[in-house]
Amino acid sequence: MPAYTIDDFSRMIDHTNLHADASADDMKKLCDEAKQYHFKMVAINQVQSKLCSALLKGTDIDTGAAISFPLGQTSIESKEFDTQDAIKNGANEIDYVINITELKNGNYDYIKDEMTRIVAICRQAGVPCKVIFENCYLTTDETKKVAEIAKAVRPDFIKTATGFGTGGATVADVKLMKSVVGDTVKVKAAGGIRNSDDFLAMIQAGADRIGCSAGIKIIEALKERFRVDQIDHIEIDRPYPKITQ
Q1: Rounded CA gap, 38 and 4, in Å?
Q2: How many alpha carbons fall within 13 Å on the CB side of residue 42?
Q3: Is 112 a catalytic residue?
Q4: Is 188 an annotated catalytic residue?
Q5: What average pLDDT does the segment 96-122 reach?
Q6: Which of 16, 79, 89, 120 has the smallest number of Cβ neighbours within 10 A?
């Protein structure tokens, strides 16, 4: 079974502030916290890409720009421009929201074209791409279908939710998504993950990245668990092998 240290857990967290009223001071705080806890990424709105990439310069912490967030209701061309603009301004990870309306219309060719074009931009730039499903609005069959498209297109991650919809990540969603893509695409769980038990449950279900604003609380709780149990790692039985980040 894969064994996880505190740092391994920290490096699975995308430390998040996507609020509309987030100030420059809020971004500095977010980045300082990411440095302190050695999180993998800060998840921010696209417009904050330049500031956060500057604040994180010289570290191994990524700047993750959210594209067409949180609704996904912009054209493919708009998403392409925003992706390119974010990368130009220092973003080195991209999380974009699918066009849920086109999915509901049964236009799977559109979803595949959108995914293919955005993934291509990220591939050319050497930047990981995460595809946000927003499962709270999808049927099980729709989630499966988008996961099947992702398995063919091969973005780096498929992601459960924005955290701004009617529901967030569930263990059932992570298991479902992972059951379709297997080890060809990683899964990011995001939305409503606020404690260490939920965090560990998402990893056990197959998630390799966790997006949350409660990362500090979660890591501190895990540190206390390690201290009380006098351990330096936790083994987690997962349905698929751990994928090296």
Answers
A1: 15
A2: 34
A3: no
A4: yes
A5: 98
A6: 120
